[in-house]
């Protein structure tokens, strides 16, 4: 089954930027584009019944679709106006998509994204990659020789989904992948005879981390031999090391493993930090 690139729109400038980004990605991957708008009936508008309000919403969506279709005349585009809670509707739309693309409001040069409760809930619930795009995102950044930057951690299986997404995206764009692995000194009590032997065999902590990154990348290098790959291993927190790469990134890819807490879903500190501070689009890819 062919999965579409799905864009969530609500008429805001950031959602229209997300729609443009999604359309370009659909063209590159030769996939259809699905445009989704989630809405709720407003009882306060007593003069307008449900059908009338739905008509207003549909007209706005169709106008946005006409604009993007004019830019990409060969692109297959479908629209869905879904009544319901936005977060649940968008997470549901993501389930059948290659990826879900959403807009996110930036505010100021320091904070890249203003991730509201809807965006955070969608990212935490979605079973497919979710891409966040800011208003003002320009396609020129995709053609400026910048890398697709991806965070890698743990063993090869821990970042498999994020690496797959990064390599597929880079291949469709003719871009390079920059794989980033951050490491910190573990507490002394975390060492065991087995782990010490692994470190000795690798020649120390940093060579061990470089070896681990190379091992995780090996199958993706073999599957995508045309994609140039740069490996970056640095001591520091994962979020800070990744954010130091945003200046050379056309897209930042991070994995996430959602955690359920008493106050709702949490998407993890690394993904949360990158989403709030990156100045390029960010793809959050759920672990498989």
UniProtKB/TrEMBL annotation:
InterPro entries: Rossmann-like_a/b/a_fold (IPR014729), Universal_stress_UspA (IPR006015), UspA (IPR006016). Residues 1-134, 153-286 form the UspA domain. Pfam families: Usp. Belongs to the universal stress protein A family. This is Universal stress protein. It comes from Streptomyces argyrophylli. The lineage of its organism: Bacteria, Bacillati, Actinomycetota, Actinomycetes, Kitasatosporales.
